[in-house]
Amino acid sequence: MSQSSGSPIFGKRKEQPILILARGEKVHHMTVRPWMTAVGVSLGALFAVGYLASTSYLVLRDDLIGGTMARQARMQHDYEDRISALRAQVDRVTSRQLLDQQVVEEKVEKLLQQQQALTSRHGKLGSLIERAEESGLADPGTDKAESEKHADATGGIQAIERLMGLAAKTAPKGPALAYAAPFTRTDARGGDTITDRADRLFSRVTHSLKDIERSQKDRIATLTSGAISATDAIETIVARTGLSVTPDPADVDAARGRSDADGTDTAMGGPYVEPDTTDVFDRQLVELDTALVRLEQVRGEVRKLPFSNPAPQSDITSQFGNRLDPFLGRLALHAGIDFRVAIGTSVRATAPGKVVVAGRNGGYGNMVEIDHGNGVSTRYGHLSTILVNVGDVVKAGEAIARSGSTGRSTGPHLHYEVRLHGDAVDPMRFLNAGMKLSSYID
């Protein structure tokens, strides 16, 4: 039971609660102090707060875990999207790199083919140039300049190939390709990409090859024009003598076929078909070959004709045509021209041919007649000594006799005639033509 006590001054004191504990015959009692109550209340409150907190955590934990997993799922998705984008970028860069490399390789292959074609053309052109030089045509180009251009083109192609090797060597591997492609990398000197350098080299090599091609075509065109001009000039000069040396087109084609087959032992044949010359260069080569063959044939015909002087450095004392006969004193035809020469001066054949007369022949005295073919012949009269026999084949400029004063002659001189199909023509036509032709034949 509880008891209370009072104070005379302050009145009654509040009674303290007493807690009685009984166990069998033993009874215990304990006074419950205010602080004990406070501690108990505090512990109860603490337990309640802890219980509520635990309950709240358990309730919210699932939400937190779900949110975290959702966030991680979003992050993983974003990461996978980024990886996919990087892979796509790598694929694009790799494809662009392969495409660039393929384009470069195709350009290099094309340049090599062009260079090989030009080299082959130079080989074809070389034989024609030699023939042109033998024909007296001046070559407008120089092999040295062309060789330098070839060397420059070769050096440029080699430089491009070195750039391709550098690009492959310095190309980043793996994902790094997404950030740098071989043919767009800046070289060690900085400020310049391999692509830029390759483009400049391509431009330089292409320019060199075009220069070579243009030079070859210019040389061909100039030589062809020169051959045609020389042939026309020779034909015009010869035509003034009453002769024609224009070759038959069929003979030109046949000669071209023989020139193409020179240097080979392979038998050939078949019907003639016009060559396939769709390529401009090949067509120009055919034109030059045809012009050279025509020039060579014309020159060959001219060399068979009597255009040289039978007595070089001798004066002409009597021209061709009507004159007073020195023996009869009346008008007569002088069928040749007379040269003032001393007895014993060498008389030379004015063209190659066959001796048909070698002996005494009336008013000619000792005479030599040479048949040059195509109805052309020459006569040499009043000779003191004959050095050839009938049937001999002589060359142009070969000594055939020595001058004298035999036959109807008033003194030492050489009587010289040119005959076409048996008719006497003025030899001065041939001598004048010979002087004009010297620049085209010699």
UniProtKB/TrEMBL annotation:
Its cofactor is Zn(2+). Residues 333-427 form the M23ase beta-sheet core domain. GO terms for biological process: proteolysis. The keyword Hydrolase applies. It comes from the Bacteria. The keyword Zinc applies. Signal peptide: none annotated. The chain crosses the membrane at residues 35-60. Residues 133-152, 249-272 are annotated as: Disordered. One of its GO terms (molecular function) is metal ion binding. Keywords: Hydrolase, Membrane, Metal-binding, Metalloprotease, Protease, Transmembrane, Transmembrane helix, Zinc. Residues 141-152 have a biased composition (Basic and acidic residues). PANTHER family: CELL DIVISION PROTEIN YTFB, PEPTIDASE-RELATED. This is M23 family metallopeptidase. It comes from Rhizobium quercicola.
